[in-house]
Amino acid sequence: MSAATPTPVQPNPLGGESYRLTLPNTAAAPRIAREFLASLLHVSRHPGLVDDARLCVTELVTNAHCHTRTPLIGVHVAVNRKRVTVAVSDDGGPVHEAFGVLGTPTAGPEQEHGRGLALVESLALAWGTGSGGERHPGRTVVWFTLGRPELTT
Questions:
Q1: C-alpha–C-alpha distance, residues 10 and 73, integer Å
Q2: What is the DSSP letter of 24?
Q3: Segment 67-71 mean pLDDT
Q4: What is residue 150's predicted lDDT score, i.e. its pLDDT?
Q5: Among 36-45, 61-70, 141-150, where is mean pLDDT lowest?
Q6: What φ, ψ does residue 52 adopt, rounded to 5°?
Q7: Nearest CA to 98 among 135, 57, 140, 137?
Q8: DSSP string covering 7-21, please?
Q9: CB neighbour list of residue 135: distance below 8 Å, 6 or more residues apart
Q10: The predicted structure's pLDDT at residue 153
Q11: pTM (predicted TM-score)
């Protein structure tokens, strides 16, 4: 019997701890991601960020579920004393349809769908999109950072 080789996790560039969750692309994925993140924030002494974080991660995981055919959705959370950064990844999707020319959400207030990224933008200290890079070519990543206002300056 051979020993299992642990998969190295990239160090959190902001310091602190890093967590990963991989979800099957099902209707339950947003709820599971939301509860995972809420638990992490309560344990890491960020209870004031829980509501905003739950809302933002729900939007991003729901987008991956509804707008891609990815079999797996990744949730990577980096938590330190001041901030939490959450990145949601999938096997790609219509990112160009979700964003306008400058990378900002395009839905109007009267539209029934498409306001999730505007909501993330309004709650987050920062957010953005990217690719999985060389390690994960073809993957789309959408991320957001939340922080306690008294500690972010």
A1: 18
A2: E
A3: 91
A4: 58
A5: 141-150
A6: -65, -40
A7: 140
A8: PPPPPPTTSSEEEEE
A9: none
A10: 45
A11: 0.77
